Every structure is written in C-alpha cells, then in structure tokens.
Amino acid sequence: MDKVTQSELPARLERLYRSGLSIVFVIARDPSAVIRAVFASQIETRWTWGPGRPFSARGPLPPGFNGLSQWQDLPHLASLPWAGPTIGVITGLPGDAPDAGYFADLLDATSEEIRGRQAPLLLVLVLSGGLPENYRHIGPVLRVMPPDQAERADIVRGLAEKNQIAASESAIQESAQALSGLEAGEIRQIVLSQLAGAGTLDPEAAGAEKARRLASGGLLEPIRVRPVAVGGLSELKRWLQTRAQAAQRGLPMPKGVVLVGPPGTGKSLSAQLVAGTFEVPMVRLDFGRLMGSFVGESEKNLRTALAQAEAMYPSILWVDEIEKGLSGSGSNGSEITRRLLQYLLGWMQEQTGVFVFATANDVSALPPELLRKGRFDELFYVDLPSRSEREEIWVASLDRWHIDPSSVDVPALVSASEGYTGAEIAAVVSDAVYESEGSLTTATLLSAVKSTRPLSNVFPEQIQSIRAWGAAHARPAGGSPEPVGASATRFRS
Ligand SMILES: Nc1ncnc2c1ncn2[C@@H]1O[C@H](COP(=O)(O)OP(=O)(O)OP(=O)(O)O)[C@@H](O)[C@H]1O
Ligand SMILES: [Mg+2]
C-alpha cells in the first residue's frame, strides 16, 4: 500500500494510467477529493459515477454513456468505444462481506476485459474504509494521506491572513497540530467557523471539533493527552524515550508494545506516558465496540477504525485490555475476535506511523500469535511496585492532592504498603484525604493503608501466577524487578 498526499494524486494516477493499469484502489476519507484530483489530471476523458452521485464527465464519451445503471455492467465498460485516454472514478463500491466475494469476481472480470481489449481505460475505485481482503490481488492500492503539519499550518495561516485576523505563529502551529488527521476541506471549515465566530484561533476547540468528527463513527475514542506522574516503570520510560528521540531524527515510530501486569499497576495510566513522550495524538480502540450483529460487520468496523487511526498519523492507537475482546462473548465471539486480531497484526506490519499500545492483565487469555516475536516490538511486564517504585508512587499520589510529601513520613508509608499496587496506594491517599478533614498526617495515611486489603493479599495465587508468567515471558517494565521464582528473561530471546 502506497501513501500519497492529495497534491501528488493527479500525477500519480496519470502515471498508473500510462503504465497500462486497468484498476487501482484509492482509500480516502473524502471521495470528492479523489474526484477533484482525477478531474485535475491531464487525461483526455475523465468521468465519475457512484450510487447517489450524479454522473459527470469531461472530454469525449462513447455515445449514450452516462454511468452505470447496475454493478453487473462493470465488465461491459471495457467494450464501449472509448475514443482516447480515459479515467473513470467509481465511488460507493460495496466493500464488505458478505458481498465482497461477489464484487471481487466482478472486478476480476472487469480488469480482464479491460486488459484483453487494450481499452485505454483506468478505473479508480474509491473506498473510504480499508481494503477488503478479497480485493487485494486485483490492483494496487493508494492511500490518500491528509495534510501534514507544515501543510496544515499553511492552510491555517492562509485563512487567518485572508480574513485579516492577527494570529501568532505558536497559535497557528498549535491549531495545525490539533487538526492532524483531517482533510484540507475539514480543516478549512473548522478554522473558518472559528475566525467567523470568535474571530480568533482556538486550538483547544479545534481539537475538540476534530475529536467529534473523527469519533462520529463511534469506533475510536479520542483521548485527551495530559501530563501524568507515573512512578516506577523506568525501563518502559527509557525505552519510550529513546524511540521518541529516534522518531524525531526521522526514524519510524515503533509498531507496538504490549504491557501486561496485575490490575492497578499503572498500565492504562502509561498510555498517557506513551502519548506524552511521543507528543502525538492518541485514540482508543475498544474491541468490544467493534462487534456488529451482521456477518462481517466487526471486520468492517475494525478496517474503518484502523484506517481512521492511520489517517491521523503519527498517532498512538491505544487498545486497552486487549484480552477482553479476545476472550469473546457469544459462541463464535472468540472466533471473530481471533480474526480481528489477525487483521490487526497484519495491518501493524504494513502501516507506518501508528504506534499500537496494548494493555492486558489476564495473560492466559492472550493467544500465542499476539506474543510471537516480530509482531509487537516488545512485551513489557509491570510487576507489583518495588520499594523504590512505591516511594515514587507515594510521592506522585500525594502530589496529585497537593500534599507536600515532606510533610509526612514517606519511608514508613513505603514499608507499610508492601504488596500494594499503584492504584491501591492512590486509593489510600484519596481515602485518607477525605477522612482527615483537612489535616492529613502520617497516622491517618497508615491507618488507611491498614484498612485496605491489597489484591495481592486477597487473591495471592492469581497475582502470583501473573507475576511468574510475566517474569518468564516478558521484559520487566520496572528497573529492578524483585525475583519471583524464575529469573526474568527477555521476550525476544
Ligand atoms: N505507577 C503508578 N504511578 C502513579 N500512579 C499509579 C501507578 N499505578 C497506578 N496508579 C494509580 O492508579 C490508578 C489506576 O491505575 P491504572 O488504571 O493505570 O491500572 P491498570 O494497570 O490499567 O489496571 P487494570 O489492569 O485494572 O486496568 C491510576 O489512575 C493512578 O492514579
Ligand atoms: Mg487498565
């Protein structure tokens, strides 16, 4: 799959035409942009047709031709007396199972007809989701990428200047950043409505509007990235830092990381860390939400969701609790989720620019193919926090309530909370804050610690088995893991 920008598209299609190709797929969120690109090309005859779209054409056409009346007529196109070089853009092709097999046959026949007759005809088939598996062999695939940061900034700056509104360069850059992933037309709409309404740029509102538009299908949830204090996980932090610096030097983003560990150890919190370190937008994919009631609907939803995430690149795709979707619900639920997972893994290999951050705590539910090397870059294990990690978590948790850590006996709290997760420590602090009625002391905190029974104490076997699994199969996310039976080995080795 090739990526092209909107402005490269006309020349690209012309070249494909000249190479004698009969069918090309173009994946674009906005089909009108593809139609505009084709009509802007130098090919003599250009026409477009699609269900629910008026037929329109430029250049000479075979007599009486004004689009298709039914999909079955597709192969017949090749036999029409085309006068010269022709590109046709067809939108609205049903791209989804259970019909995909039928349409793939139709497209095969069409492509064969065009080649057989040497008709000077290239068909551009526009899809807005991803490409169905059945279509893959039929023709090359171009993905139209939305404008990059510099192009977005140019659009915003241009509109501000045209409307004689003074905007600082930093407001322009921030707005451009907030609008990543949108098409030029959408960016113009949002910025123009701000300039016409409030008379000024508002990056935050622009980001909210983008989130609203991108999430309109409800498959991806835009996540607001905020600075967070995460205690421990020093290896994960270091790993992310080096990758983020490499990305800044132009190296590709990592493809993905899986983070496993007991409940409450800060896995979900770490998603913020990932997005913050890479300084890119983040969206959450909920496997459960993809499930449709019709055959093939879940796959279609996943394809659409991944295409949306890819359009926002560079971005973080956060798949929280990936095993929840995988254990499946109904009788064939697990079969569907397995297929979804296969698709996700295949997609990860192909795409660049989206970093998949997956978390899980029930490792027994994870299928082996998820963990096989070469799929995700790394599998990290978050253990129960060590002494020094608990200290960092106590400090971060107190900080969140604006409590000066030097006003309490942190070492005593650290000792008293052995076996507690970050979530349990955070909960202890908030309980104590409410109980103390304004005068928080070490004693209040210690009594809150005592009245909390940590999970590692309630379900020692389960926690122990997660820990043993992590130590044996994954790379420690923390600095110095405390030994749990087997010594820690690297995922890759
Ligand atoms: N390492 C940590 N540093 C600071 N706070 C933490 C840490 N770990 C957990 N917390 C606190 O606990 C809360 C819950 O943690 P989080 O949701 O990230 O756990 P989790 O590992 O995703 O758990 P689960 O497996 O149940 O989803 C966080 O929002 C934070 O307040
Ligand atoms: Mg979580």
From TrEMBL:
The keyword Ubl conjugation does not apply. It comes from the Bacteria. Gene3D superfamilies: 1.10.8.60, P-loop containing nucleotide triphosphate hydrolases. This is Uncharacterized AAA domain-containing protein ycf46. Belongs to the AAA ATPase family. Highly divergent. It holds the Pfam family AAA. Keywords: ATP-binding, Nucleotide-binding. SMART domains: AAA. The keyword Membrane does not apply. Residues 253-386 form the AAA+ ATPase domain. GO terms for molecular function: ATP binding; ATP hydrolysis activity. Transmembrane segments: none annotated. Residues 474-493 are annotated as: Disordered.
